[in-house]
Amino acid sequence: VNTEAELSLFWGGSLVYQGPLSLAPGRQSFSIPVTVIGEGFQRVQAVIEPRQDTLLQNNQIQGLTFVEAPPRVLIAEGAAGKGTAIYHSLTAGGAKAELVATEQLPGTLAGLAGYRAIYLVDVPAYRLAEQQLQNLETFVNTLGGGLVAVGGKSSFGLGLYQDTPLEKLLPVNMEVEEQEEMPGLDLVLVIDRSGSMTGDKINMAKNAAITSLDVLKERDRLAIITFNDQYQIHLPPTELTDKQKVEGSIAKIAAGGGTIIYPALEQAVEQFAGSSKSKHIILLSDGQEGRSYSYGALLSRMVEQGISLSTIALGSDADQSFMQRLADNLDGRYYYVPQSADLPGIFLQETALAGGDYLVEEEFRPAVVDSSFRSFSSVKPLFTGYVASTPKPLAEVLLTTHREHPLLSRWQYGLGRAIAFNSDSFGLWSSEFLQHPDFAGFWADTLSWVVPQLSSGDLALDVRLTGGGAEISALTGEPLGEDESIKVTVMKENLEPQELILKPEGSNRYSARLEQVTEGIYLFNAQRTGNGGTVGQAVSGFAVPYPPEFKIPSTSGRELLEEISAQTGGRVLKHPREVFSAPFEPVHRSTEITFWLLLAAALLWPADIALRRFGVALPAAGLKPTKATPPPKEETDRPEDSTFDRLLEAKARKRR
User: Fold this and answer.
1) Which helix (H) or strand (E) holds 445?
2) How far apart are CA 121 and CA 101, in angstroms?
3) Could you read off the pLDDT of 538-551 as tens digits, one per residue?
4) Considering the entire predicted model, what is its pTM?
5) What Å distances lie between residue 37 and 40, 41, 66, 113, 301, CA to CA?
6) How are beta strands 334-337 and 307-314 bridged, if at all?
7) Rounded to whole angstroms, how far apart are CA atoms 140 and 143?
8) How many CB atoms neighbour CB 392 within 10 A?
9) Which residues pair with 417 in a beta bridge?
10) Residue pair 146/418 in contact by the 8 Å Cβ criterion
């Protein structure tokens, strides 16, 4: 039908064009001016919204295109400002870098495929969905992308990378060897004990504090400060060699009074005087600050001393925005807990994340352990902390800390590469590093190393969609040797990767068929292997449109229907009711049966001769055999019984 419509064009998930169209029946082509953005594989999607439509299934289509340009890099930061220094360093070197919050990290593999490398700057694993983590692993392993993980208090072991795809693809394990030599943790719990905490709230808060002891080591120290309209030090910094004594101190906490937070928080900072351990505060409150205080100077002091703060807002009456601002300013985590029953789990998680087993906050200058590392040629910068980890056996360690933990390590993972930098890039422990003349060159070198070569060797890939499947072919400059093969790994969003081995088709052409492809974007990587290594590789992709039955046909098909009806004596119907109103008499025809009669005679003739020859008699029709009637039995006389007769005669005489 003739109708008006609106066309929307999306490039890599972003709307790049929207405008009106006039549609007519049949096929039409439109040219749309678009500024190409991005680099590498880009997903393109067109969506049309007509005013009148009889078939909704073919109103959108998607495709895949490849854009050659300078390396496109995505920098995801765990908090605002943490990725800025790396962003400026890479863009100054000519890279096309994009800086986004963790929540803006693409959720699809096709979205990641548009980048050559991804930087995660202090990004915790628990803020990424399971599918996002798996996509990052596939991006490096199968698509040959690069990934750089940069440290901070929400990264590596502190960011719960253990047993996730991030730990799998990085060159370091999160488990730290010889943990007993780690400096340990100084933890201060600041707990609201105002009148509103009476009952279950204060009991669950005490239970939560006791629960946190389960993950603290003997080398750690714990202090507890409670507050209402005044603060009270229930437990000064105490090593946990006697946890039962600490539990007894926690059990004595009682609720009552108003709510004033600032003096208690200020006193918590005092508990860290002279501490060389990691320093962390957990603040719990269910109310509002009772007086007006200026927190600026106190927060600056905490930042200078390397004290982190996590806050827990309990119930709907808590000042949630205030508690979140405190945590954001001090590199901590914020929790809103509607029910007090959830407190033990939150305390347990937060105590584990505080970093006693991972965090080292000590001054050191890195040691260069690999001659290929060229930065820091003059003076090595001073660092004041890092997140400890253990290098994997095949990792290449370039820099180490004073405790011989890896500071900069890298390795090849599948078809891609990954780098781990265990300190930070935003001034938490790296103020001198930020001012170092080699700072920009350091990050440019990481990009040069992880940016993959999408194609190498003499592989050229081709795809044809046929019969509901896809035929994937590879052309080679030279035929495969006896020990060589070509393996293709095919990926689609939310599906397990499939591996195909290409078989020879002749003329240096090798192919395999992928059955039952469905609508969507497919990415695949081909590897030519031989002599125990990769000889060549290539990356490509294809898009599967909506099913063929929803395509607009090139002809109406009326001519074909008319020809079929003419040859079969039928007619072309214009309305469904015409099916039951045929204008002609039914057609009769005779059928020749002579052959069948002769066949029956030929079969019955031998049977007739056999019956006559051997005299087999058949029972007359309608007669049934009867059984002989047995002769009647003769009656026998009863034997005489003289005794019986005498009794009868005696009875008769008596009656007389």
Assistant:
1) helix 439-450
2) 10
3) 888 888 887 766 66
4) 0.62
5) 10, 11, 11, 14, 45
6) parallel
7) 6
8) 17
9) 146, 412
10) yes
